[in-house]
Amino acid sequence: MSFPAAVLVLILPVIVYLSFAHGRLWERWERRAPALWAVYLFSLWAYQAFVSACKAPPAQFESSLIFLIYLLLPCGLLHQTRGLKPGARGAAALAALLLFWLPMEFERLPPVSLPGEAGLDLNKLLAVAAAMYFFIIDARLDGVGMVFPAAAADWRRTALEFVFCAALLVPLGFGIGFVAWNPRFGGAAYELLKPAGIFALTAVPEEFLFRGVLQNCIEKITGRRTLALVAAAAIFGLSHFNTPPIPNWKYVFLACVAGIFYGRAYRGTGSILASAAVHTLVDWLWISLFVPA
């Protein structure tokens, strides 16, 4: 992918995330939520249908139908949760989360690739964009934390969680034979795009799903913050079991440990963007300095 195309790919999710992290824009979206949700869903589906038609016209109808059903099931469930009691809303939100997450996790979504032979598949970005709108704006799930850390103490907490996480993960990785030392760096443009790409395409989507929704809902259902943190970290770790070689239990273990620190950053600052920053730095450290042993 060319440098301009890579920059464009990064701009798309950033625009989506900033729109949900902007307080005044939230208020405008919430006032129009009853009418806007259908327009929003249709826009996502129309984009998928258009890209599918450009890439593979014969399979366009089937692919678009599957993607439409994928969007409608969890979004329709969330749309009906407004009048429910908190516990019931949390349970329904968890069910909707599974409907969003499992097809992504097991690579069952129809491809939505940018033009070009090496076009990046944006199906997960579209799915997360739909999930963000319906959890935050339509269902009005509180505590998601799609806000910028405002206080200096929040930024210090974010930095400390990264330091503690790295200080534990690195010796653990060597101790269980998971990593080997192999520093490698590309050109200036690549090194600038690398953390931005991790943040936009990996860290924010995963932190939204595992901390902003999963940890948040478990805490609402059980009333126990530590249980919610540990449970979300464990599920986050288990989501890495299908990373080759399968099953990758060493990766699961280290991801569970990392998830504890991501959850602490989210809980301590009230922001998934803070936990996404820790997540980004940990992934950048892994990609830049280590390789699988």
Give a short overview.
With 293 residues, this protein is mostly helical. It is 75% helix and 2% strand. A two-stranded antiparallel sheet has the order 1-2.
Describe it for me?
With 293 residues, the protein is mainly alpha-helical. The protein folds into two domains: 3-138, no CATH class; 152-292, no CATH class. It contains eleven helices and two strands, in the order αααααααβααααβ. The model has no long low-confidence stretch (mean pLDDT 81).
C-alpha-based Rg, rounded: 19 Å
Strand order of the largest sheet: 1-2
Question: Multimeric state of these chains?
Answer: single chain
- The N- and C-terminal alpha carbons lie at a distance of 29 Å
Mean pLDDT: 81
Classify the beta-strand content into a percent band: under 5%
Major pleated sheet: 2 strands, antiparallel
Secondary structure tally: strands: 2
What class, by secondary structure content? Answer: mainly alpha
Give helix % range. over 70%
Low-confidence spans: none
Number of domains: 2
Shape: globular
Order of helices and strands: HHHHHHHEHHHHE
**How many individual helices?**
11
